[in-house]
Amino acid sequence: MKIQLDNWKVINVNFSSLKDEPREDNSFDLSTGHFFPKEIDKSFGVGFEIEIKDKFFDLFVEAIFMFKLDEDITEEFKLSNFPKINAPAIAFPFLRAYVSNLTLQSGFDPVILPSINFVQFAKDKQESEAE
Questions:
Q1: Per-residue pLDDT tens for 10-20?
Q2: What integer pLDDT is reported at residue 127 of this predicted model?
Q3: Domain boundaries, the chain
Q4: CB burial class (10 A; 0-12, 13-18, 19+) of residue 12?
Q5: d(CA 7, CA 14)
Q6: 104 Cβ partners below 8 Å, 6+ apart?
Q7: Member of which family (predicted)?
């Protein structure tokens, strides 16, 4: 089975500069999910939401990455690690570069998102959903 990143889009971005004094601390929150469009048998998507509270601005980004396969998606594939771990790991560097460039081109120091261990991220997500 061949799998390829087909395309990606930022579907929502909200960037607002703080007008008052800078914050003391930065924060970063990431959530992911995956979906399988019913009308396309050989495609699936991975979605990201990122919320950044920088010292000087707030940033929210929502993006979708679409992957295509050379064969129909099976139930076994849907339950595999690829949609939850491998696909987000492939897509995330594109989103990291987007956020870095957006913040830099907006006149701020570039935000370089941390590397994410998507194996641990998926495990943590599964444990929190079980609670």
A1: 999 999 999 88
A2: 81
A3: 3-125
A4: exposed
A5: 21
A6: 110
A7: Belongs to the SecB family.
Distance of CA 18 to the CA centre of its chain: 24
Q: Which CATH class is domain 3-125?
A: alpha beta
Contact 89, 118 (CB under 8 A): yes
Cα–Cα distances (Å) from 53 to 56, 57, 87, 92, in that order, read 8, 6, 26, 19
pLDDT for residue 56: 94
Bridge partners, 69 (sequence order): 3
Q: Is the full-model pTM beyond 0.70?
A: yes
Look at residue 49 and give its three-state secondary structure. Answer: strand
Asked whether the predicted pLDDT for residue 41 surpasses 90, the reply is no
